[in-house]
Amino acid sequence: MSFYVTLKSRRAEIESRYRALTPASARLAAAAAEVLPGGSTRDTVQRHPHPPYVRGGSGGHVVDADDRALVDLWFNATTLPLGHADPRVAAAVAPWLTHGSAFYAPTGLEIDLAREILRRLPSAERVRFTNSGTEAVMLAARVARAFTGRPVVAKFEGSYHGSWDDVAWSVGSGDGPPDAPVPAPATGGLTGHAGRVLVLPYNDLDVAARLLARHAQSIAALLVEPIANRMGLVQPKPGFLAGLRDLCDRHGILLVFDEVISFRLGYHGAQGLAGVTPDLTTLGKLIGGGFPVGAMAGRAEILAVTEPGRPDRVSHAGTFTGNPVTMAAGKATLDAWTPDVISRLNAEGERVRGALRRALAGLPFQVSGAGSLFKICATPRPIVDQRTSEEADAEWEEIASLALLNEGFLLTTRLHGCLSTATAEADVDRFVDAVARLVRG
Ligand SMILES: Cc1ncc(COP(=O)(O)O)c(C=O)c1O
């Protein structure tokens, strides 16, 4: 589409301005390349020509290596709902930095955080902590396989569920006919999907019904994001999640909501808003208050497969699992993450999406998202699944993201954003103005 050409033709100019603004980051990126392959140890923070290296953060801002204060609009991938260095979280963590931060024994803090999570998730009676969302998904798959005695995990095309082989299929791209997708490897190094993974198109209940029925006897779990982040913060169509619940009941498949991101949408997570009860829920990000975390929660009967003394019990360990620093930070964060706070931030999210829609009116864009999440999508067509997501002009989004970084706003390279309670309204307004200037030339 010709509209996008204008900004794309400015790529060299935008990049050279970025280089001029970030010489210290450029030096760090060059040093990193001498010790880290490709200069990186984390794919998601890479960007061309180099990422901004960060020196610190406070509230709604981070400061980069060149002493630029950036308005943070992604908060380490939605992990910091209260913003950076929140004093309540810092105070909860501080004692453990002087009293010891990791023990070969549990602390009571894991009970407190578990109680807090279970209070919020009516679908869950038990929880097990992990060190990341990826590990939570790995554990959910293992538990579901053990509980059902079936081998296959079904997932949706376009969904990212972490950096693990069985879910690293059809993440950024689809393959095969749209109504009979074929798993597409999302990384090198995979050894195959046969007998382990089934891929379904998001938001198509008829196809899900057909494919799940065909493979029902071998499917242990159906993994679904209640808001599909990588696809473009795509929302499930009305009735989609409830329809999946029915299909799983019919075929004896465990329904797993991956709420690693979507838990922030409501006090009871996205499941509370949708009114649908999953068998298992995977969590991460904000429940650790900015420290490494994950969790898998669900019915006691299912999590019982991890209990000692059972034949064929599912084992699950982790040196830092349940560590007091993360548990204390998570509890302090959730204590401040009250229904009132959540609904105020969601209202601010609604305001941002509305303002962006007005700024982009008449132009070939979609503004997606829910709650405190938003995304600008460079496509004239609404995104409902992976295939429509691929119609978005990823190159335009990436250049726009760099141009916005030049203006002092940090989002993903695909223009995902999120708010924290520390985000200033004035910063949001300046961001919307910057977007308006970008698209109106
Ligand atoms: C929906 C979802 N599941 C799982 C993960 C993996 O979490 P982590 O990066 O903590 O391993 C992510 C990470 O972005 C995610 O968005």
Q: How is the secondary structure organized here?
A:
Layout: H1 5-8, H2 11-21, H3 23-33, E1 54-58, E2 61-64, E3 69-72, H4 75-78, H5 87-99, H6 109-120, E4 126-130, H7 133-148, E5 152-156, E6 197-200, H8 205-215, E7 219-224, H9 229-232, H10 240-251, E8 254-258, H11 269-274, E9 280-284, E10 294-298, H12 300-303, H13 324-336, H14 339-359, E11 366-368, E12 373-377, H15 386-389, H16 394-406, E13 409-410, E14 416-418, H17 425-440
Parallel strand pairs: 3-13, 5-6, 5-7, 7-8, 8-9
Antiparallel strand pairs: 1-2, 2-3, 4-10, 9-10, 11-12, 12-14
Helix pairs in contact: 2-16, 5-13, 6-13, 8-10, 14-17
The structure holds pyridoxal-5'-phosphate.
